[in-house]
Amino acid sequence: MNRLVLNKIILLLSTVSAMIGIGFLFWILITLGYKGISSIHITTFTHDMVNGGIRNLLVGQFTMGLVATLIAVPLGMMAGIYLREYSYGSKLAAVLRNLSDVMMSAPSIVVGVFVYAFMVAPFGTYNGWAGSVALAIMMIPIIVSTTDNMLSLVPQELREAGIALGGSKHKIILQIILKAAKVGITTGILLSFARIIGETAPLLFTSSNNQFFTMNMNEQFPSLTVSIYNLATYPDEASRELAWAASFVLTVIVLLINLIGRYATRSK
User: Fold this and answer.
1) Which residues, at least 6 apart from 205, have a Cβ–Cβ distance to it below 8 Å?
2) Where are the domains of the chain?
3) CB-based burial of residue 57 (10 Å sphere; 0-12 exposed, 13-18 middle, 19+ buried)?
4) Using CB atoms within 10 A of its CB, is residue 263 exposed (0-12), middle (13-18) or buried (19+)?
C-alpha cells in the first residue's frame, strides 16, 4: 500500500513539474510571438541595422555559422571515424570521448575567452574569423559524439562483407559505413548548427558586432545574437522593438532547424 501511495505521489510531482516547465516555455514563446510579430515590418528584412533592419545581421550570423560548419564538420567526422573504426578501444579513445563529453557541456563564454586570447588580442581587433572558430569549437564535440554513436549502430556484418569483397579499410568506411549512417550523422550536424546559430557569449569576445553590411571577416562582423543583446539595452523604443523582431526571427530559425533534424531522424 505504501508503495502505491509513494508511486502516485511521485507521479503527481513529476506531472506538476513537467506542466510548470511547459507552462514557462509557452509563456516565453507566446510573449516572444506577440511582441516579435507586431515589431516585424518589410523593412526589417530589407534594411541593415543602422537603418532599423536586420538584413546585415542575418547575413553575418549565417556566414559565420557556415564557415564554422566548414571547419567543424570535417574535423568532427574524422575524429568520430577514428574513435569508432581505428582506435580499437584504446585508452586514448576513452580519453578523447571523455574530453568530447566535457567540451559539449563547457560554458560557451569560456570558449569565447579562449579564442579571444589567440585570435583577437594579438591582432588588436575583433573579427569574423575568430567568431567562426569559436562556433566551430562548440560544434566539433557534438559532431564527434554523433558520428561515433551513429557508426556504432552500423551492423558489423556490413564491414565484414566489405572485407570479403576485397575492399580496403578507407573504401569500406567511405562507401559502405558512412552511407549507412548518413542520416544520423546529418541530423547531428543540423542539431549542432542549430545550437551555435543562437549563441551570443562567444561572439561578444570574438566578432563583436557591426551595424553596417560587410563581408570582410577581418573586421568586426555583424551578428544577430550580439545585436539582440545590445538593442535590448538601448533606451529608445524602436531599438527594443527591433530586438523583439530579431529574437522572434532567430527563434523561428532555430526551431525549424531542430524540426528538420528530428524529422530526418524519424524518417530513417
Assistant:
1) 109, 112, 113, 115, 116, 120, 134
2) 40-266
3) buried
4) exposed
Q: Residue 35 corresponds to which cell in the numbers above?
A: 511582441
Residue type, 106: A
All residues at 6 or more sequence positions from 57 whose CB lies less than 8 Å from its CB, including other chains? 48, 49, 222, 223, 224, 227, 246
What does pTM read for this prediction?
A: 0.88
CATH of domain 40-266: 1.10.3720.10
Q: Which residues of the chain are modeled with pLDDT < 50?
A: none
Alpha-carbon span 47 to 189, nearest angstrom:
31
Note whether 184 and 266 are within 8 A (CB). Answer: no
What angle do the packed helices 182-196 and 237-266 form, to 10 degrees? Answer: 170
Angle between helix 128-152 and helix 182-196 axes, rounded to 10 deg: 150
pLDDT tens sequence across 43-101: 889 899 888 899 999 999 999 999 999 999 999 999 999 998 888 878 888 888 888 88
Apex 224 CA angle, 220 and 227, nearest 5: 75
Classify residue 35 as exposed, middle or buried by CB count within 10 Å of its CB (0-12, 13-18, 19+). middle
Query: Which residue type is seen at 166?
Result: G
Q: How many CB atoms lie within 10 A of CB 223?
A: 28
- The radius of gyration of the chain's CA atoms, rounded to the nearest angstrom, is 22
Cα three-residue angle 113-77-93, rounded to 5 degrees: 80
